[in-house]
Specification:
alpha/beta; Rossmann fold; 2 domains; 21% strand
């Protein structure tokens, strides 16, 4: 697979269970087996504010202490990698940085990584995934695709779900639909999975139904469904995807995508984040964030073509 030949996997310093690293090894092994070269770098950003506040020590002494901590973490990371006994070579790097997301994105920009893989945390009490500020910063600002790893396994012959917006006439959505679908097909071929497509559409606006009594909401919903189904079939045919594997439903995107992902037991959902400017640039969009928050499987978030990270400007 030519797309991912330079992968950065983010290491979690709080645990020996590195699910993102294991997922990376599985993916990279498949890429290598397909005849492509792949470079994997395990990246850990650490920081302890207490070392910066130790005024008794000189700057040189503080630097020695920081280097000592970094060395300990380097040995720990090497041990973690060795225990997994990977069949691929994995490089590792530990840096001292007070803002992990900046360290990660700066590394991506400097080394031109194709993919960032990062694990998510599960909250024991509610059994729901908790996204850290670092997760959201990476999703919003990282210039390359980001794969968030959860607890769901990647079984053989599993299902990959591509979340589309086929009902939109906007060029940005159209190009993102193509990008998402190509990504889903490539990954499905790589891990011997099945490609599914999902699209949601809004129901009758409540204010119209109230303000215009003669408005026929059933006819409106039927027309919307037909429009999106036809657009979905045309898109699926373009990429040689069976209509049986397409899902068009009325409702909010976050609800529909989650329902379909559960119904087909998706191992991975691929979605796009629409690039914006101004105030909305701080968000990847409420829809995408709600979708990512609710899914219990891995999520691959893609940026539109031409996206430039704020950290690169």
């Amino acid at each position: 697979m030519e797309t991912y030949q330079n992968i950065l996997v983010v290491i979690d310093p709080t645990t020996d269970e590195q699910k993102a690293l294991q997922r990376t090894i599985d993916l990279a092994t498949n890429i290598k087996a397909s005849g492509n070269k792949v470079n994997v770098n395990a990246f850990l950003s650490i920081f302890d504010f207490s070392y910066e506040m130790t005024t008794i020590l000189s700057s040189d002494e503080r630097d020695v202490m920081r280097q000592s901590v970094i060395k300990d973490k380097e040995l720990w990371l090497e041990s973690i990698i060795s225990d997994l006994n990977p069949t691929i070579e994995i490089n590792s790097q530990v840096v001292w940085h007070n803002r992990p997301f900046e360290a990660i994105i700066e590394r991506v920009i400097q080394e031109n990584y194709d993919l960032v893989i990062k694990g998510t945390h599960e909250h024991d009490k509610f059994k729901s995934v908790i996204f850290t500020p670092t997760d959201w910063h990476i999703l919003r600002k990282c210039p390359c695709p980001v794969l968030l790893v959860k607890e769901h396994k990647w079984p053989s012959n599993g299902n990959i779900l591509a979340a589309l917006n086929v009902g939109s006439d906007e060029a940005e959505h159209h190009s993102l639909n193509i990008k998402i679908t190509k990504e889903a097909k490539q990954l499905a071929q790589l891990i011997q999975g099945n490609t599914h497509l999902v699209n949601s559409f809004p129901g009758t606006p409540v204010n119209i139904a109230i303000e215009i009594p003669e408005f026929n909401s059933n006819e409106y919903n039927d027309a919307m469904l037909k429009h999106h189904e036809q657009a979905m079939i045309a898109h699926a045919n373009e990429f040689d995807i069976s209509v049986i594997n397409t899902h068009v439903k009325e409702g909010l995107p976050e609800t529909v995508i989650e329902q379909v992902a559960i119904n087909i037991d998706a191992e991975l959902v691929i979605l796009g984040t629409v690039g914006r400017t101004g105030i909305s640039a701080a968000l990847i969009g409420n829809t995408a964030e709600h979708v990512i928050d609710q899914l219990n499987c891995d999520v691959l978030a893609l940026k539109p073509d031409g996206f430039i990270s704020p950290l690169a400007e």
